[in-house]
Amino acid sequence: MQFITPEYAREYKSCFIDKSYVVSLILSIVFLGGALAINYYATHYATERAGNPVSDLVLDNIRVYDIDGAAVYGPVVLWLAVTILCLLQPKVIPFVLKTIALFIIVRSGFVTLTHLGPIPNRIVNSDAPAFLQAFTFGNDFFFSGHTGLPFLMALIFWAKPLVRYFFIITSFIFGIIMLAAHLHYSIDVVSAFFITYSIFHIARDVIFKKDFTRFNQAQK
Question: Alpha-carbon distance 118 to 125, whole Å?
Answer without folding.
Answer: 14
